């Protein structure tokens, strides 16, 4: 087993871990990054189709307010370009396709009023949350005892059946989980990071730009700057920690360091053996922040034929096994690429089917919205994030009822020499690549302060008799 020493060990080479390592190296510290996968990027991933087309199969889009990601692109020499938004979006309800433009579908004044009312009520609750401690808000315990699904299903909150259907489908998308599994407080915590649900539900804000070469290229270039400090295919099994330092152990590598930043999805951090065991609130939190289920499919066509129909490629179909699509055609405009998704229980159901049957159902759903051309893609690529050993789901972990008010204080607070980073722990842009980067930089700053204090204490004269 290779043995190395460093000032800091970072576990995980997703955006959170890479951002933390980059900041520490810039400050002049020796850093080792240990990654379980054979690639960097974590929950962002570039996949290549047989014809050579490269598609981003995980985190993909940038949007308004995601300043650190845009800055990273500039620093790393990557260009961004606007998401294709020309033409109409489609809403499919009760077997009928409805064209619309803008953030909200034209479903009649009653539905629009109910949607606006529900989002305004959620916004009022969201504003009451302290960004760094939502569990301390007045009313937090009552909200944490209730699910988002219960709140949405109450006609007093959403006084329209169609609006309830639309909001339920949208929340399914955000958490990749049934709203009945998500704490209302946990949902509000995500919204707090972006300024409200209006941000996360408006693709014109959250999905306004793509990275030329794909978002994973940002991670690859960050890792290239770190060079041999990054060790791939090294899943961490054990972290020993005491008053003198830490030891991070994988099957092929042992790292001795002063501090460690665990920058993995919480569900994976919970599978690491800590010696001695973590305090109860940490171990219980890691067991409870669970990822949802998502299958993403890329269908590739010679050209984006939907644009000729004056369609943007963005669709929402709440009753469909494939409820969401979006145009992911490369900057060149060729070939045409549709990205489509199944979430939550729908993804779990499709995942149990024979692949040929699943493909048939998937293409049937696309054909209902885009016509017969959609049935015959030149390429078809599935990515089931629940089957990925080092993700176990996607795209973020959600907070079930009771989690934040009982264990939330352990979300960011270091456990001795152990620090935490992940998009789930971000106070701004929670759940996005931007949130992951910010969480990594926050953890790095915590470590820098701790190392500085340790150096200062070591430099003080010994006053013992």
Automatic annotation (TrEMBL):
Cofactor: FAD
Domain Amine oxidase: 15-448
Keywords: Oxidoreductase
InterPro entries referenced in this protein's UniProt entry, alphabetically: Amino_oxidase, FAD/NAD-bd_sf, Flavin_amine_oxidase, Flavin_MAO
Family: Belongs to the flavin monoamine oxidase family.
Stated name of the protein: FAD-dependent oxidoreductase
């Amino acid at each position: 087993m290779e043995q190395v020493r460093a000032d800091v060990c970072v576990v995980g080479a997703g955006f959170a871990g890479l951002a933390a390592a980059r900041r520490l190296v810039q400050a002049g510290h020796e850093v080792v990054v240990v990654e379980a996968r054979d690639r960097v990027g974590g929950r962002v991933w570039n996949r290549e189709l047989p014809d050579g087309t490269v598609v981003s199969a995980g985190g993909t889009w940038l949007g308004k307010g995601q300043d650190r990601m845009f800055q990273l692109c500039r620093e790393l020499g990557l260009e961004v370009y606007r998401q294709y938004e020309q033409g109409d979006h489609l809403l499919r309800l009760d077997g009928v396709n409805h064209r619309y433009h803008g953030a909200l579908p034209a479903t009649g004044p009653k539905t629009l009023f109910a949607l606006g009312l529900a989002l305004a009520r959620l916004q009022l609750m969201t504003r009451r949350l302290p960004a760094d401690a939502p569990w301390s808000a007045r009313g937090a315990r009552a909200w944490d005892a209730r699910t988002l699904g219960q709140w949405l299903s109450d006609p007093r909150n959403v006084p329209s059946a169609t609006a309830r259907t639309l909001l339920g489908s949208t929340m399914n998308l955000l958490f990749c989980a049934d709203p009945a599994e998500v704490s209302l407080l946990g949902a509000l915590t995500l919204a707090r990071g972006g300024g409200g649900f209006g941000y996360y539900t408006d693709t014109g804000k959250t999905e306004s730009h793509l990275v030329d070469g794909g978002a994973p290229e940002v991670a690859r270039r960050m890792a290239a700057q770190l060079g041999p400090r990054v060790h791939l295919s090294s899943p961490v099994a054990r972290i020993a920690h005491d008053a003198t330092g830490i030891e991070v152990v994988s099957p092929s590598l042992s790292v001795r360091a002063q501090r460690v930043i665990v920058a993995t999805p919480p569900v994976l951090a919970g599978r690491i053996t800590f010696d001695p065991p973590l305090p109860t609130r940490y171990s219980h939190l890691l067991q409870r922040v669970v990822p949802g289920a998502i299958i993403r499919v890329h269908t590739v066509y010679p050209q984006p034929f939907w644009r000729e129909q004056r369609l943007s490629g963005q669709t929402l179909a709440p009753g469909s096994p494939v409820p969401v699509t979006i145009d992911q055609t490369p900057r060149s405009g060729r070939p045409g690429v549709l990205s489509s998704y199944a979430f939550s229980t729908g993804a779990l159901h499709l995942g149990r089917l024979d692949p040929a049957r699943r493909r048939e159902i998937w293409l049937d759903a696309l054909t209902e919205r885009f016509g017969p051309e959609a049935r015959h893609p030149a390429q078809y690529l599935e990515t089931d994030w629940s089957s990925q050993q080092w993700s176990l789901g996607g795209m973020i972990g959600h907070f079930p009822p009771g989690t934040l008010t009982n264990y939330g204080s352990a979300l960011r607070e270091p456990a001795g020499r152990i620090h935490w980073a992940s998009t789930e722990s971000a106070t701004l842009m929670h759940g996005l690549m931007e949130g992951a980067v910010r969480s990594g930089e926050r953890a790095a700053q915590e470590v820098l302060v701790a190392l500085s204090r340790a150096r200062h204490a070591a430099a003080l004269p010994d006053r013992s008799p």
